[in-house]
Every structure is written in structure tokens, then in C-alpha cells.
Amino acid sequence: DGFSLFQSLRACRNQVAKAAASGNENIQPPPLAYKKWGLQDIDTIIDHASIGIMTLSPFDQMKTASNIGGFNAAIKNSPPAMSQYITVGS
């Protein structure tokens, strides 16, 4: 989650600034929460790139909703956003 990473980095920056102002060299970093993702069925990863955030087209959103919820499925006004990654390996 980018927002929680941003908050953690900002807290670290503030602690470094406070330590520098007080002359203290002992800094306790705040805990960093993260989610580790893994790729299955890949032996060697050569390169990995994030190509950004994308949203589904309205057609894809309706198709997915009808497959999951049936004929009377409802969809949200805004399509969900997701991150896309490209990984090269063997």
C-alpha cells in the first residue's frame, strides 16, 4: 500500500530530523508494515518492472460482475484500480 509506505517514510524523516536537532545518534525507526508477494512456477527472475495503475473498462467490469454474481449482479460506479507488473524469467 503506497499510502502506508508514505506515512512510514515521513515518520522516519521526522525522527531523523528530531535526532539531528537534539544531537542524539540513537534513532529508533518506526515499524514498517509490508506485504510480500511471490511468483509461483518461476525458477529464475531476471527482471521485474511496475508499469503503473490501470482500471478495467466498463465492459470488463460488467463481465466479471455477471460471472461472479449472475444476471442481477450490481457494479460500482467507479471501476477498481489495480497495479500491473511485468516479470521476465524462466
From TrEMBL:
Pfam families: RAB3GAP2_N. InterPro entries: Rab3GAP2, RAB3GAP_N. It comes from the Eukaryota. Residues 1-90 form the Rab3-GAP regulatory subunit N-terminal domain. PANTHER family: RAB3 GTPASE-ACTIVATING PROTEIN NON-CATALYTIC SUBUNIT (PTHR12472:SF0), RAB3-GAP REGULATORY DOMAIN (PTHR12472). This is RAB3 GTPase activating protein subunit 2. It comes from Mustela putorius furo. The lineage of its organism: Eukaryota, Metazoa, Chordata, Craniata, Vertebrata.
